[in-house]
C-alpha cells in the first residue's frame, strides 16, 4: 500500500506500486482534471504539483510519490477562484481546454518560486504543448495572475455560465409552429 497526500487529504492506494500516479489519480481517486496526453511527460497535460514542483504524473509511480504532497487542478482552489484560474477566464485563454489543467499547475509551481516572472521566464517554465496555440494569451494571463498574487491587481471573478429560462425567452425570438397566414 502506498500512502501520500492528495489535495490535502491523506490517501492510501491499494494498487501495484509501479502504477503511474496519473492513473491512480484518474482511476482510483476520480480526479480527472489531470489529463493523459503523450505518456512520455513531454506534452505536460498530466502535470501536477508534487511538493512544490511541477511534475508530469505519467512519469512517476505511486511508489515514488510515497510520503509526498500532491496537488491536482481540483485541489488548487475549491471554488475555482485561484488567480491563475481567474486570469485564464478573464483573458479568454482557453480554447479546447484539454491542456489547460497541466498548464495552470505548471504556472502555479512557477509563481511559487518566481513571484514576478518576465516573459522569458514564463516561456522557459511552461513547456506544455497546446494544439490550439494559446501561447500569447497564456503569457499575459500568467503575468496578470502573478500581479494579483502580489496584491497589485484584482482579477474579477467570472460569472457563472448559463442563463435563466426567463432570459432565454426574451433573448431569442419565439418560433411559430403555425403556417404563415394566407
TrEMBL record:
Pfam families: Fer2, Fer2_2
The keyword Acyltransferase belongs to this UniProt entry's keyword annotation: no
Membrane-spanning ranges: none
Residues of the 2Fe-2S ferredoxin-type domain: 1-76
InterPro entries: 2Fe-2S-bd, 2Fe-2S-bd_dom_sf, 2Fe-2S_ferredoxin-like_sf, 2Fe-2S_ferredoxin-type, 2Fe2S_fd_BS, Beta-grasp_dom_sf, Diverse_Oxidoreductases
Keyword Electron transport: no
Alphabetical keyword list: 2Fe-2S, Iron, Iron-sulfur, Metal-binding, Oxidoreductase
UniProt protein name: (2Fe-2S)-binding protein
Organism annotation: Sphingomonas cynarae
Amino acid at each position: 500500500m502506498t500512502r501520500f497526500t492528495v489535495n490535502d487529504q491523506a490517501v492510501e492506494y491499494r494498487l501495484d506500486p509501479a502504477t503511474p500516479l496519473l492513473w491512480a489519480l484518474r482511476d482510483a481517486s476520480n480526479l480527472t482534471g489531470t489529463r493523459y496526453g503523450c505518456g512520455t511527460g513531454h506534452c505536460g497535460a498530466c502535470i501536477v504539483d508534487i511538493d512544490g514542483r511541477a511534475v508530469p504524473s505519467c512519469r512517476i509511480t505511486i511508489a515514488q510519490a510515497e510520503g509526498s504532497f500532491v496537488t491536482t487542478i481540483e485541489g488548487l482552489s475549491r471554488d475555482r477562484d485561484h488567480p491563475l484560474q481567474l486570469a485564464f477566464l478573464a483573458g479568454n485563454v482557453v480554447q479546447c481546454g484539454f491542456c489547460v489543467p497541466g498548464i495552470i499547475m505548471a504556472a502555479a509551481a512557477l509563481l511559487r518560486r518566481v513571484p514576478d516572472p518576465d516573459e522569458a521566464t514564463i516561456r522557459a517554465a511552461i513547456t506544455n504543448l497546446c494544439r490550439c496555440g494559446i501561447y500569447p494569451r497564456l503569457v499575459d494571463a500568467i503575468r496578470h495572475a502573478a500581479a494579483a498574487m502580489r496584491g497589485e491587481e484584482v482579477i474579477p471573478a467570472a460569472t457563472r455560465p448559463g442563463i435563466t429560462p426567463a432570459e432565454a425567452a426574451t433573448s431569442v425570438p419565439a418560433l411559430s409552429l403555425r403556417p404563415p397566414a394566407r
